[in-house]
């Protein structure tokens, strides 16, 4: 029972930083250039996380074939999910209703539980796709002697810019606060459940299966970074994007080396 609670705590910590980033972006008017800098920094952290905490350890435990299958599968899964959500909808023959002569600013846009598409949803999809296998890995790590500080810390740190960047984009796109809150609370709950499942369900799973699950997270993560977070950051930061990403990578790498 103690192990289940530790697994749930791991998921709560990792998922909680998603909520912190999302809440900060929604309630604080953060300059877009600063958001882009945080996203670039987070991209470096995520690259380090997927390289050292996910792919490297999966390869050592499960071998190259499961890692290759999972890594490519995660990237394809993200790209397909992103395309399904963000593809252009077919136009209908019915014309849209005429807008009112005078509309209160932002009231019509934010009414109901509407979720705008685009970059914000794409990052959220990436957070969900990589969050489930990452959380399973956190749950599995509890079996090896308690909460794995390097893994939980790296995932928690990398989740913050995902929540921040996605919510900032959703807010700019006109999403409702209710829809954004439901989105991130749902992802956070999935993170906790997946962490508990990793401890309870996958205890006897073969190492090759664990390697596939782990690298699905890494592949989806890398695809999301290349398609969404890095281009979004570069649009504002330009030449500084690489510097911020390098700093983020270095910080996560040092954390890995000092706590590993």
TrEMBL record:
Protein family per UniProt: Belongs to the ZIP transporter (TC 2.A.5) family.
Keyword Transmembrane attributed: yes
Mention any one GO cellular component term assigned to this protein in its UniProt record. Answer: plasma membrane
Membrane topology recorded in Swiss-Prot or TrEMBL: Multi-pass membrane protein
Instruction: Spell out where the chain crosses the membrane.
Output: 6-27, 34-52, 64-85, 112-129, 135-158, 179-202, 208-227, 239-256
User: What is the official name of this protein in its record?
Assistant: ZIP family zinc transporter
**Protein localization:** Cell membrane
Q: Enumerate the GO terms in the molecular function aspect.
A: zinc ion transmembrane transporter activity
Keywords assigned by UniProt, alphabetized: Cell membrane, Membrane, Transmembrane, Transmembrane helix, Zinc
